[in-house]
Amino acid sequence: MVALRRIFAVCLALILSIAPAGAALGPDSIPAAFDELLKVPMLSNPAMIVIDGTTGQIIYEKNIYSQRKPASVMKVLAGAVTLEYLDPQSVFNTTINIAPEEKIVVIRGSLDPWISLDHNVARKMNRASLPYMGFNTLSAIKKANGGSLKNYKVIYSNLYSKDVANLKAFWAKRGFKPVFKQVTDDEAFLAQGDLVVSENSPTVREILDFMMLWSDNSLADRLAGLAARAAGYSPNIKGIETIFRTLLTQLEIDDSKLVVADASGLSKKNKITAKLMGELLYKIRKDEKYALLYQSLPVGGVSGTLQDRFTTTAPSAVGLVRAKTGTLNGTATLAGYVQSTDREYVFVTLADDIAKGNAALNKARAAIDRVLGRIAAPNIPAEISPAP
Question: Fold for domain 16-86+206-373?
Answer without folding.
Answer: Beta-lactamase (3.40.710)
